[in-house]
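We close this part of the discussion by returning to an individual protein. The amino acid sequence and the backbone structure tokens for this protein are reproduced below:
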Amino acid sequence: MLIHNCAAIVTGGGSGLGAETARALAKQGVKVAVLDLNQAAVTAVAAEIGGVGVVCDVTSAESVEAALAAAREAHGPARIAVNCAGVATPGKVVGRKGPMPLESFAKVIQINLIGTFNVMRLAAADMLGLEPQDNGERGVIVNTASIAAFDGQIGQVAYAASKGGVASLSLPAAREFAPSGIRVMAIAPGYFGTPMVNGMPQEVLDSLVASTLFPHRLGLPEEYARMVLSIIDNPMLNGSTIRLDGAVRMPPA
């Protein structure tokens, strides 16, 4: 896809993978709308890249509709949508205090899976109304899964289930939108140096690095962003989930 001067939306764009993706897209001449719950963060990133910042709750239909309307008013309908908003709340099915509260499981599913779908359905509706580019493409949607979708550890049941759902929706969505020239992909990151991970105790960080084969370090957010750009650039990437993990395979716990 030719992306210069195209519009894009990036959820979770106030920090981590989302912020770095917003920066990478802006450097390529893309007009980026940065969506996040954190008002200060979304404003700061948008100001840095010359984009527009919109406070958005991905679990709310009304909030996402309003956010996409604001982005559309600023930049026009988006040809690129990148879903990075998510949480990694831990919890065993049955822990020391008994069964996991159902609302704890539901909250993770609501943010990571339903939130991704919520943004995808509305972004795709806008893309369907766009004129195709010369190669027939109307848009690209990139969702964020996780290696937990395949290697979920003890205590990751909600997170793994939510990210497994994100990975699984890529193919049926890609098949649905294929006749209209809209591609859908997912990236499954391994251990990346985001605020969520960097806040862990040093011994935990050391163990994460130890299990990553090569490169023997945490992934860099800009490496995730480069993968997003590669997906957008390569029209044969469609309907799949790409592991971006340095060959790590998570142990049971």
User: Anything to note?
Assistant: The mean pLDDT is 95. The chain is about 45% helix and 15% strand. The radius of gyration is 18 Å. The first strand starts at residue 7 and ends at 11.
